[in-house]
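Aim 2 progress update. The chain analyzed this quarter is reproduced below.
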Amino acid sequence: MRNVLFFLFIPLLVFGSADRNTSDANTTKSKKEKFSGSSIKEGKTDTIVVKGAVLQGQVTGLTSQGLSFSLIYGRGSILISYADIDTLTTEHSYHIFYNGKETVGKISGLYEHRWLVIDQNGSKEMISVTDVDRFILSIQDDNSFTNKLHNLIPFWSGNVDLGIEIDQGGVNKRKLDISGRFEYHRQRDRIVVFGSRENDTQEVNSSEGWTVTKDEYLVNVEGNRFLSKERREHLFLIAGFERDAIREIASRAYPAGGAGYKWMPTDNFWLMMQLGVGGVFNNYMTYGRNYYWAAYGGGEYYYTFFQGVVLRGKIFFMPSIVDSHSSWLFRFNSSLAFPLSNLFALKLTLEDVDDNNPAPDIGNNKITTTFSLSFTF
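Predicted structure tokens:
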């Protein structure tokens, strides 16, 4: 167990549970007060009529498949097809980004099941649901730090994770794991930047000093260009760079490119699949350099459970086009994040690294499990 991190978690757990208890207490007072916390004006509800049934709650998102709606008398959100919506009106005002423009207002209708009618203090504006890039609750209705941040940088999201361990005993140890993932998504363009740094040292004897037991870094940049407003078919470019001194890897680069498809059957789940070609360029500390051209097959997935628990992962395999039995690169990273508040989460990450390492005493495979504190925005 990461000792220092455990004590960092205690106040966050207390505050997180306190927020949830307060929210539950408010819910029992009135169904409408689910969205009437300190940052949302009390009593506001959005109303949607679906095939004659009247639903009340709050619009939480717009996708190419439909509208996400959170009910005042339940937990979580449901995805409603635009074709099933008879009428839509909101008491909340929303900050809407579309086609390089932005507007703030309330929704007063859904024309022909595809045009949002936005009311801006009496003036009307119509926006196609397929043109919406970001749909955020306005600061007037939610002035929390998280919502202000989303309104300030609407096309960016991400997280920074920190894990620390300090052991004192027969063998003194210091471990630092820090990583970050940042995503930019606007219209048909998506850019994802991921980086991590891991450094472990230990001291067996004070006279011998500290010994490095882990020295790793990883930077991965991916760009996607979607070919339609539905954001399914896309082209991609990936550039990965890494170092693992303990495994004799001074540096390694692996660019790749190709085409892919994003499958999003529900509002809280999507799966991205990609095929292409690339290359792997290795620089070993003792065994020199080599490179090979490779095929690329990869995937990425995202799933949100109840209570905001998020499962996210990425996997890819790059076998040599000439000899896949002797030269290959495999990476798998999956994380499960448990929210403590709007900004912080506990994260469990599993990583599997497998490649043709030339050092016989090191081996090809390495599996790492990390428990960290995550700042999410």
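The helical segments are 3-29, 145-152. DSSP finds two helices and 22 strands in the chain. These observations will guide the mutagenesis experiments scheduled for the next reporting period.
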